[in-house]
Amino acid sequence: MPADPRDVLTRPAPEPAHTVAYGDHPDQVADLREPAGEGPARPLVVVVHGGFWRAEYDRRHTGPLAAALAALGHPVAQLEYRRTGQPGGGWPNTLTDTLTGVTELPRLAAAAMPGRVAPVAPILVGHSAGGHLALYVAATAPAAVGGVLALAPVADLVEAYRRDLDGGAVAALLGGGPEEFPERYAAADPRMLVPIRPRTVVIHGGLDHQVHPGISRDFVASARATGSDITLVELNECEHFGLIDPESAAWPAVVEALQSLHDDHHPIDAASPSR
After folding, report:
1. Where are the annotated segments for Disordered (predicted)?
2. Less Cβ crowding at N or C end of the chain, within 10 Å?
């Protein structure tokens, strides 16, 4: 029988080299992985996990992904944040935790891994709900983000609410629907926050039953129409979880997209305008 794509969620991974805190709450932390080899300092890659923002999913399930990226020479941080179903999770703390973590982690990672983290804005790799959070941070704090790789992102919260993704996940995050809390959707929904200024690559599987690929198609079209530097890569034979599985057929496309963001990402001259 074929392997269950969800196996990656519980697959063991090497322990991280460090864990750092970006706030006082136990979930305001990130696990750091040292890059393999002795190469020059590189931009930090911040992995933002998915799980429809729910407490039962945490950063540990991105261990195989993060370990594989570190093996390729990237310094990696697996970001944790408060989630729905636990005290303090949901609106607005899930979003503000991610924003604070992305802002603080380059400094914290550079201190923990001297000489391995370049003094530039990090590249964000977000999967599913983590893809939403990565796009949210890129839209609201573009100077803090060097690029975004959004893997099957929940990039349209209104549409995700309409489709009732994961049985009310968006309503749990924002407290209700767009008619009840239009201001929350306006502040949190990537579809309403375009253009996305940092360079962005969206990858989505054609067999994805958790987040319909049409959400990414429509989001990328909308973002392009507003001038975003954004690319959509559709993998027709990929489902939802293959995008975070280094053993999947989709993995080379993920690595290629991340490398393209790395190659495009240059140190920002403090004297020049932010991108």
Report:
1. 1-23
2. N
Residues in the chain: 275
Main-chain dihedrals φ then ψ at residue 2, nearest 5 degrees: -65, 150
With b for 16 or more beta-carbon neighbours within 10 A and e for fewer, the 111-140 pattern comes to ebbeebbbebbbbbbbbbbbbbbbbbbbbb
Q: What is the pLDDT of residues 92-130, one digit of tens each?
A: 999 999 999 999 999 999 999 999 999 999 999 999 999
Nearest to 29 by CA among 44, 46, 5, 14: 46
| 8 φ/ψ angles, rounded to the nearest 5 degrees | -60, -25
Cβ contacts of 205 within 8 Å, gap of 6 or more: 152, 213, 234, 235, 236, 237, 238, 239, 240, 242, 243, 250
- Note whether residue 71 is domain-resident: yes
Query: pLDDT tens, 41-98?
Result: 999 999 999 999 999 999 999 999 999 999 999 999 999 999 999 999 999 999 999 9
What is the 8-class DSSP label of residue 3?
P
In a domain, residue 271? The reply is: no
Domain count, the chain: 1
Q: Residue 161's domain is classified under what CATH number? A: 3.40.50.1820
Distance between CA atoms of 38 and 176, rounded to whole angstroms? Answer: 49
Residues 6+ apart with CB under 8 A from 195: 223, 226, 227, 228
- Read off φ and ψ for residue 48, nearest 5 degrees: -110, 110
pTM tops 0.70:
yes
Give 117's strand partners. Answer: 42
Residues 6+ apart with CB under 8 A from 119: 41, 106, 110, 267
